[in-house]
Amino acid sequence: MVSLVRPAEIDDAAAIARVHVAAWRTTYRGLLPDDFLASLDTLRYEERWKRTLSERSDRVYVAEDIDGLVAFASGGHERAGETGYSGELYAIYVLREAQGRGHGRRLVQAVAGGLREMGLTDMIVWVLRDNRSARDFYEKLGGVFVRSQPITIGSALLQEVAYGWRSLDAIRY
Question: Rounded distance, CA 17 to CA 53, Å?
Answer without folding.
Answer: 12
